[in-house]
Automatic annotation (TrEMBL):
PANTHER family: MULTICOPPER OXIDASE LPR1-LIKE. SUPFAM superfamilies: Cupredoxins (SSF49503). Its main location: endoplasmic reticulum. Keywords: Copper, Endoplasmic reticulum, Glycoprotein, Membrane, Metal-binding, Oxidoreductase, Signal. InterPro entries: Cu-oxidase-like_N (IPR011707), Cu-oxidase_2nd (IPR001117), Cu-oxidase_C (IPR011706), Cupredoxin (IPR008972), LPR1/LPR2 (IPR052152). This is Plastocyanin-like domain-containing protein. It comes from Mikania micrantha (bitter vine). The keyword Glycoprotein applies. Residues 142-222, 288-357, 437-578 form the Plastocyanin-like domain.
Amino acid sequence: MQIADKGRIGIKMFYSSLLLVHILGLLVVVYGDRGLVNSSQLEMFVDEIPDMPRTKGYDVVHGVPVSKTLKITMFQKYWKFHKDLPLTKVFAYGETKRTATVPGPTIEAIHGVSTQVTWQNSLPSEHILPWDPTIPTAIPRNKHGVPTVVHLHGGIDEPQSDGNSNSWFTAGFKEVGPRWTKKTYLYHNQQQPGNLYYHDHAMGLTRVNLLAGLFGAYIIRHLEVEAPLGLPSGDEFDRPLVVFDRSFRTNGSIYMDPVGNNPKIHPQWQPEYFGDVIVVNGKAWPYMTVRRRKYRFRIINASNARFFKFFFSNGLRFIHVGSDSVYNERSVLVREILVAPSEIADIVVDFSKSKSNSVILRNDAAYPYPGGDPVNEINGKVMKFIINGQREVDPSRVPKNLIKYPTPSLSEVLKTRYIAMYEYTSPIDEPTHLYINALSYDDPVTEKPKVGSTEIWNVINLTEDNHPLHIHLGLFRVLDQTNITDIDTFRECMNKLNNAEKCEIEKYAVGKKLGVEAYENGWKNVYKMHPGYVTKIIVKFGYIHTNASYPFDATAEPGYVYHCHILDHEDNVMMRPLKLVK
């Protein structure tokens, strides 16, 4: 009996050891041998996509919407990005810690009814990601606390509520930045209906605060204008999709390279962050079960630097209805859409047109865009749609004509400006910093448009990257994109003089012209500035849907900004102040 028992124990120990070796082998395969998750071994399409919590930015009294004050807090908590990943420490927005999510709750506002938000910081004294004090950065005096401030991207609101990068504050407002204004922000919601995006905007920390999870969707609805369009509506058929990329360590934490590309100059800063895991609404490569009918998706690219060129694996098409915060004048049927960081694509997909019962939303944008590495089988897939086989009656529609806003007239233009984008490199030809008009953020303001005015901006991209330019408060349309011939000679002159007119830009901007995609031919607040091109835009510092004046003083402090929306560029420091004047 004893010999037999020992034999059985030995066999059990053998198989237990074999099982342990097998498990360890799997861990090496999945997690790699350098402490990083091997994303190629994570199973795709196993987590169902969540719909983020929806928070009404208004109350209803006797059937009438009225203004409401929200209290939304930034918490540190743990988040599950994938069923096979450990919990991940994140920063998350929410009304409570339990309900806080990545991305944060979708705030739904109504045109003409203001929303007030008290943004509260309950984050710990230390950041969960490495940050670099050698770039212009919000640093508390006592070196404790995570500075944050919220910008409503696409919002047309007072400067005090715009989330100026130096209006930051730490937990409990214990410390505040030099341009801090107030605890409760006022969003007027007087602008055209459309899609906005709230996110952190702290000086030098935007890239790490968004990587940690501080962003979410904001929608302004205008029933009288939108209901006649008949687009898919209701929580089931009208869904924000917030797309971003991340990499992870084996313990579940978000991975960000702790060593800079020029470590002797900037110990941590890297010119672009790219992760191999594609996340939608907080889940890695999720799936969504849909019915054979039309759905509306408000797609926000919340990545630091990754562009997405979306397309469907079976040739299904997108019906593009809105870009950034504005409806298109006409709906546009396309096979693919290119979405830069912080651009928003408002689309409708008709799954009744699919010949298959499932389809993968894919990506084909090189990184960095446009001249970087091609996508692979990992970062080239975004999410999967599982399509119900039964056809059904679909009451929604997509009209050809949507919402027409007045076309800007060149006769209204008060001023023409030249805006040049520069990248500077070290002796080893690695980027050290990026400027607009060869100026840092703290240099005196040079752009002072008049309230209500229209201007022409000629944006000159002297770099090799595509830079998505975002203008706070203003809306613009793209008029022309012209290649700069003999750009090396022109760049050499610009590096010496920083003056496009003295460098005779008109002599060099005579090359190939790029057409504007039909789905981007309307009003925008972000646009992709092609490398080696002059992009002419017409900018409106006033409402586009009415001649009414702003219901606030746009000339107040701390003013506005404009910047590249690749967050790593914005932080170091491709951003300039924008001061409106009467």
